[in-house]
# Entry
Amino acid sequence: MNTQRLMQLALNGVDTLGYRLDQLGVTSKINRHNLAAFLFAEQKHWEGEWDSIQAKVDRRRSQFEHLAHNVESRADTVIGPVRDRFNRFRASQ
# Structure
């Protein structure tokens, strides 16, 4: 079935539901325009949530990279002199 035709069928169903509810006096707020507005608002909401998650992940990644750099530099400070002595010992033989 064609996607456009399927979407039109669904929107007609929403319109019919809104019309029937309006006839019953329940509400007049269900129609394709309000549904589209709701979906667009929710899409923007979820895009914002995704951006927030991405920012948190990027922040944690940056913190981890900073920590890894600190560990590497401290390891070089501790191991460097031992490595230098070993290299000098090996070169003298």
About this structure: The chain is about 90% helix and 0% strand.
